[in-house]
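Researcher: I'd like a structural prediction for the single chain below. Treat it as a standalone chain; there are no partners to consider.
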Amino acid sequence: MTARLLEQTIRRPVHSFALSGGSAHIYAQAADVDPVIWSAAFGDSHKDFEYHRLIEETMTSGFVYRYLLLCDEHRDPVALQPLIIVDQDLAATATSTSALNWIRKFWPRFLRTRMLLAGCLVGDSRPGVIAPANPRRVSALLAEALRVCAAREKISLISTKDFPAALREELSPFCAAGYTRLGGFPPLILDLQFTSFDQYMETRLSRVTRKGLRRKLRKTAESSPPITLEVLNDCREVIDEIYSLYLNVAHRAPVEFEIFSREYFIEAGKRMPDRHRYFVWRRGGKAIAFSFCTIWKDEIWDNDIGFDYDVAHDLNLYYLTFHDVLVWALRHGLKHYHSAPFNYDPKLHLRLRPVPVDLYVRHRSPAINSILKRIAPLFAPAKSDPALRKYFRVHTSA
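Model: Treating it as a single chain, here is the predicted structure.
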């Protein structure tokens, strides 16, 4: 992508500034960056221009969005990076909170700060490198540009959001620039290399897990009245039912992150009906479970769930939803099943595989940053979940 094309396609930068190896342009809205650049950076991902615009327009409470376009010394675009400004609790993943709560009685803002995040608000992220740019060089530009952006916004703390650990070599310039790498909460994946759910159980699960899962599913199937499933690509007629189920789960989450708005679920189906599916389970006509999924190429993302907790345990709703979504995916020829972070213990028993992700964290103050390098590992998200710690300990030593 040449500088001439850049001049034709970009518009209305909020700020522009020079970098040691190029330049940066900040935009206030996703639509301010031409789709040509979006396509070059994220056209192969379901988290593309339409998805980032959806988030920007439906998740407005507590978030400020910016879009960082990086150019080389020839003014050729080399990367597009979505940014988020958010008030963040740095101790959200701490395993011990008694001392923290005592300190906050006297210092309410202790370990709370405005943060500049590079990445997508929802789930894992990646740098939006524009080919044929060199990824390592882009990382060096991005690490520098984030510090300048933070200074302009008077923000002290900077972090990337859940970049793939598989890109550590490409992202190594962040560490060279003083950022500290921490393990984030990993999403999980299951390769659908089987033809049926029964074959999955026989080939992937341990005897104990297989026996327990069959017992749970059999009990649920024998319940009366029976449970039915409908799969929709538009949720407007059922939003009141499913949104209350979603909030039941969101408010019980072990770590406080974003809670999606009603508009997010409604607009996802309106704007991208070919990409999103709403699985709704009913019993006696009443919605008792919900799953919001994304379909992209030959993959399915099981993004968000909701349960009626009055019956969720007795009816084994988590295992029912997992079974039914997997069966649907197999029927539609999908090859990979993705699950959001958290609830790791049952997912690991079901042989879903964590996909490690990293945060690169830096404070603008050199003195504070040197302290951060020492204390930040204590709050590394990946270390806060017991099942996850055990999994990585076993697989690292194997």
